[in-house]
């Protein structure tokens, strides 16, 4: 059936194509010679009076050239195949001394400095000094897994210009009906380092069932080659503990609205932090896979799975508390920004 | 019936205006259409004294009404019809609560009448009137628009037609003014906020995994090429920043469904005056079944050249002649460059007739040449005759070939640009080997199978007035960061307090625009016409706005004959707003010693 359809399409397509070529040829010749007449006269004048550059191919009979409106430029066009058109560029030079004379701002002479100065300030700001902001709720999800079901969130917001921004991040999780296990808020100053990467520095405050902690934060956030979004930070707590967190994610568009997002989060510690159940070295790893449907870019519900596991000393701490070292959970949530 | 106006009547109008007779109301509604239930038609203003009132109003399209900023209550603003050699006083009253302005795009005026707040004048304060006054020294198709904030996006634009003092070298029986624009119900500042949050926010035609597996026409890119684009953190589908995801594309203020209709009698020569008044949209224009003879570009006459399609950058104007012989309707298709949507209109012998509307063509994909590598292994491609080129295949093959040799290339090699270019956060790419692309038809038009206009097809009808060779070159790099939505010249936003580009009065200089970005930028210089260096020495087309294709370059020769301060910018409004703007100074001023 398909091949039959194909044959039919080809058969229909052939004459259409032929017709098209035919049309293209036809339009080379004006349908009404009178139509071009007036134009021809006007353009013949300048041609007669001016020597054409040797490079451009001159139509032998200007009139003949004009009867076929597209032919003259086409000839010249062909004559330049492979050449840089026109004469070579003169040397790159700054302006002459004469270009620097006179008032700094011409309009000041007409309207006065007092009228122009504020307008100049506005025009400067309106051409590049854009302040904007965004609030992104990257994850807001119900977590269904071992033990009691709960919920988790991860969100950030920023405001500022192209280079400097204020950046706030928060994440946390809780079981339904209980006090939040873990709540984290970061307030950061963000500075663009290059087209894709940003330096982030500031403070992090943890709340929750464990002991509260305050950290100094130094991190980088940005876009790695192949569109991997990376966020890495070094944390130093008010107790002197040093930890590192690296997050990476990738948006794979399956269709224009369906996006599969693999995500990884790795945590490291420079020392045991018994109070928080963290062991030295590679402490935890989180692997997630979320499939979201973007009704609009700003609103995308998703389903997903996540595997989280503690390693080394951290796993030992968990086992000591009769907890498992890790496990799976299913996620249902929404990603949104505005 | 009003559209059945003949050229003679316009000439009569010109005569009437000389005695100061107000023609509005009597005059044909140039933007009117026959369809029922549409926005009121736009009037025409002529004469020595013209009154414009900028105010908040509403605009309705596609059955929805939104806030607009208009002049005399209509969108587009009234057609201003002038005559070469007259003097005009334009009284502009600002009824907004914010500053406003009008820039007369393409008109040669004294700098203080050019209408750019903070550069040529202080702007028009709320509830005040500013009177522009200047002689009309040219003829052709131009337009006018706000240069304040983002008012242009809200409807603050209208057409200008200037009839020549001498007999018009272009013969025609009838004319229509075609103002193309893009309308959104979003506030323009929201457009900016969205783009700053997500550079590709409005692009809903990105490549997908399923698309790659299915292999549609929009997905013909090898896995290795995809990987290469990904490695560069560049999106080969990033062709327009703002798309049909939010825009309704308009012809004379009418959406595609409203189907603006221009009338003709079979056999007539119809002059169409195209103006791209869009904020962020470059259009590809065709009228299936009708060849179009381009007779003027940016208001100035060119030697007639017949094409099937042409690309029009923001703020460019083209006059074309069509000669429909049959008693049938034709569709005007103005596709947005990214092919996410189209403006549509109809030319027909009678109102109510329609022709088939072709579907949008597959979205184009950027090539190595768009990436600035045009000169690397096929330098001659820039000069290739596209008629002769079996376009799709050979272009794709050439592109494919070059991608393999790209392994360890630095796509941001600072040694490729002079020290004057600040390669910082705002510069995500530097064209490695940019080529002159005046012979190219524009993104996505290489393989459409018919003749598409290129700048190299354009030759001035009259000899260039100044044939002195340029004495120096000024290189300007068009730079940007697609992800952060930053745009600039030479890597510096105007807000960073950059030096003006300075010219000595009457000096002859060459400006080379090098596009390091992967987007087409229509670059506009105020107060001057410049000669686009396209091979036709002495008959270069003279323009006020020139499209610089991605990864390519355009040179223009300039006689800096207009003393004063002038704006120089990308005419994609949001690129200008993001920083792609400079002041050009020409000194000494009038009455000053050199």
TrEMBL record, chain A:
N-terminal signal peptide: 1-18
InterPro entries in the cross-refs: Autotransporte_beta_dom_sf, Cu-R_B_prcur
Protein name: Copper resistance protein B
GO biological process, one term: intracellular copper ion homeostasis
Region called Disordered, residue ranges: 21-98
Top-rank lineage group of the source organism: Bacteria
Keyword line: Signal
GO cellular component labels: cell outer membrane
GO molecular function: copper ion binding
Organism of provenance: Sphingopyxis flava
Pfam families xref list: CopB (PF05275)
TrEMBL record, chain B:
Entry superkingdom: Bacteria
InterPro entries in alphabetical order: Cu-oxidase-like_N, Cu-oxidase_2nd, Cu-oxidase_C, Cu-oxidase_fam, Cu-R_CopA, Cu_oxidase_CS, Cu_oxidase_Cu_BS, Cupredoxin
CC per GO annotation: periplasmic space
Keywords: Copper, Metal-binding, Oxidoreductase, Signal
Transmembrane segments: none
PROSITE patterns linked to this entry: MULTICOPPER_OXIDASE1, MULTICOPPER_OXIDASE2, TAT
GO molecular-function terms, A-Z: copper ion binding; oxidoreductase activity
Extent of the signal sequence: 1-31
Domain Plastocyanin-like per the UniProt entry, residue ranges: 57-165, 176-335, 468-588
Entries under Pfam families matching the protein: Cu-oxidase, Cu-oxidase_2, Cu-oxidase_3
Stated name of the protein: Copper-resistance protein, CopA family
Organism of this sequence: Sphingopyxis flava
